[in-house]
Amino acid sequence: MMKVYSGPLSFYGAKVLIAAIEKDLPIEVEFLGFDLRSPTPYGRNDEVDRINPKHQVPVLIDGPLELFDSTVIAEYFEDLAPGKPLWPVTIRDRARARLLEMKIDEIWFPKILRLRDLRWKPDAAELAESQAVVGAFYQGLEETLGDRDFLVAGFSNVDIAAYLAQLFAAMLGEPMPARFKALQAWRRRVEARPSVSKVCGDMLDYLAAAKFPVPQFAG
Ligand SMILES: N[C@@H](CCC(=O)N[C@@H](CS)C(=O)NCC(=O)O)C(=O)O
Question: Is residue 36 part of a domain?
Fold first, then answer.
C-alpha cells in the first residue's frame, strides 16, 4: 500500500489525502509530530528528511517510487486513476485549473498563513493588510466561480485547494463573509463530499482536542 507522510493540520498534506479518497486509492497515512503552540510546529522525520530536501510534507512512498510536493503527488494519482479525474476535460480548462491551483498553493495560501505568524508577533498594520488580502482572495474566488458549481469545470484539484485555503483562513479568524453568496453555496457543495468531510473533519477534531477555536463546518 502507498504511504503518505503528512501533518494533522497540513494544508498541502490534506490536498493529497482528499485526492486519494476521491480516487479510491488506498493509502497509509503517518502524521509527523506537531506542536500547535509553536511558531515552527512540525517535528522532524528521518524518512521525510531523506526523501524531501525541503524537509516538508506531504511525502509519498509507493514501493520504489518516492515523491514530494502535493501537486506532483496529485499528478501521480491522476495518472494512476484517470477514470476518476480531478482535472477538467478540455486542454484550456486543465491549464486554467492548474494555474489557479498553483496560485492558491504558492501565492494565496502563504499570505493566509501570515495570519498564523501574526499570532506570534502581533502587528496591527500587518494584520489589517492580511485581512485585506484574505478579503481579496474571497472576492477573486467568487468572481472566478461565476454561476458555475465548481471553480473551473467540474470538481477538481482546484476546488480542493481553494476549499482548504478558505478553511485555514476561517481557522485563523477570517471566515468567508456571508455576502459571498455563490461562494458560500460552493463551500457547502465541496464540504458535502465524503472525502472533504472526512479529511477536514479530522483536522477540526484535532483543533478541538487542542482546545483551539473551530470554524463553522458542515461535514
Ligand atoms: N509546495 C509544497 C509545500 C509543502 C509544505 O509547505 N508543507 C508544510 C506543511 S503544510 C511543511 O511541511 N512545513 C514544515 C516546514 O516547512 O518545515 C507542497 O505542495 O507539498
Answer: yes
Nearest-atom index, ligand 1, CA of 42: 14
Q: How far is the CA of 57 from the centre of ligand 1 (A)?
A: 5
Q: Are residues 113 and 25 in the same domain?
A: no
DSSP 151-201: SSSSS-HHHHHHHHHHHHHHHTT-PPPTT-HHHHHHHHHHHTSHHHHHHHH
Q: Is the CB of 55 under 6 A from ligand 1?
A: yes
Count the domains in the chain. 2
Task: Please choose from 49, 57, 103 the residue to mutate so as to test ligand 1's pocket, defined by most ligand atoms within 8 A of CB.
Answer: 57
Do residue 107 and residue 126 come from a single domain? Answer: yes
Whether 194 is covered by a domain: the verdict is yes
Per residue of the chain (219 residues), give pLDDT as tens. 999 999 999 999 999 999 999 999 999 999 999 998 888 889 999 999 999 999 999 999 999 999 999 999 999 999 999 999 999 999 999 999 999 999 999 999 999 999 988 988 889 999 999 999 999 999 999 999 999 999 999 999 999 999 999 999 999 999 999 999 999 999 999 999 999 999 999 999 999 998 887 777 654
Q: DSSP class of residue 33? A: P
DSSP label at 85? Answer: -
CATH number at residue 39: 3.40.30.10
pTM of the model: 0.96
Q: How many residues does the chain have?
A: 219
Domain that holds residue 164: 91-200
